[in-house]
Amino acid sequence: MSKYINKRLEQMKAYTPGEQPVNDSFIKLNTNESPFLPSPLSVEMATEAAKKLNLYPKLECTELRKEFANQYKILPEQVIATNGSDEALFFAFSAFCENGVAFPDITYGFYKVYADLLEIESTVIPLNDDFTINVENYINIGKTVFIANPNAPTGLFLELSQIERILKSNPNNVIVVDEAYVEFGADSCIHLINKYNNLLITRTFSKSHSFAGARLGFCIGCKELINDINKIKYSTNPYNVNSMTMAAGLGMLMDYDYVKENCRKIVFSRDYTISELKRLGFVVTESKANFVFAKHPDYSGMTINELLRENGILVRHFDNERINDYNRITIGTLDQMKSVINVLENKIGG
Ligand SMILES: *Cc1c(COP(=O)(O)O)cnc(C)c1O
After folding, report:
1. Which SS3 state, helix, strand or coil, does residue 295 take?
2. pTM of the predicted protein model
3. Which letter does DSSP use for residue 200 in this model?
4. Alpha-carbon distance 257 to 152, whole Å?
5. Residue whose CB lies within 8 A of the most ligand 1 atoms, among 16, 31, 178, for a mutation test
6. What is residue 141's three-state secondary structure?
7. 121, 123, 253, 310: least CB-packed within 10 angstroms?
8. Among 216, 224, 222, 223, which Cα is nearest to 240's?
9. Is 204 in the pocket of ligand 1 (CB under 6 A)?
10. Can you tell me the mean pLDDT for 101-108?
11. Which of 263, 264, 261, 299 is nearest to 280 (CA)?
12. Helix, strand, coil % (nearest 5) of the chain?
């Protein structure tokens, strides 16, 4: 750190991304990427767009937003494209959090980081012992709420009727529902944006749409909320989505059947992984996401993590005391998951 950095940033903890190894020798199940390639059409459209990289991207992402709106039965004015959903979240933190934010203690790590960066007061609410959300804690809370649904890294899904209770009891605050993992078998609250003008949803193409490297996310809500988000976009990075990603994203939307089929495969491999891990004595949450969250009564989380790493498999371990015993294992191909189970079976037995 230099002596020039702002005083308050000296203490601030930045987000720690999962390891991105320089070589490709690992089975990489540590950052919830898709094991499937982007669709050929999306790659072709990105390649075409690359020929015009001398020009700035289209500011409004009109075609992409139209197609997205069409697919999810909303209006183009109700969605904005962003540079990954991390940017959508950053915009939401920048726009709507004057009275502080509330989110669970075990959730996506970026919420706390953005709050700290923007000097927003955080109310961190512990999950129940079984990692479910106690909705009562959010009724009439009077703060901007961030809920990942399904949650990360637990994978647990909160019923939409419960989300609605939070929305109804906090009419003067925006409730942000982060649907990064919604395509893996959970219900979306997109259809609720016409009913609640305080509902803002973030989506990403990083997980379900095989687009982690492209950086494409979306923010969805009533027209007025999206206008507010646009104000932040035009105050930070008007060209937030690059031309190649914009074109590729449109291709990916046009190939939604391919996306759905990949998600179906992931769900199948996830259910296989959960039942095999249980057979080996692991405790596993009922994940609705493209990862599982598991601990073994006889081995520490770090032991399991290192054991897998020694066998060429990367999974994610978090230092947070409450979840120290766990690892978050991304669902890859069925073959990759069989490798994980094989290693565990050989090393720790059934
Ligand atoms: C991965 C993830 C994101 C961010 O995804 P981007 O790659 O920035 O689109 C947001 N929220 C949750 C809960 C995530 O797991």
Report:
1. strand
2. 0.97
3. E
4. 26
5. 178
6. coil
7. 310
8. 216
9. yes
10. 98
11. 299
12. 45, 15, 45
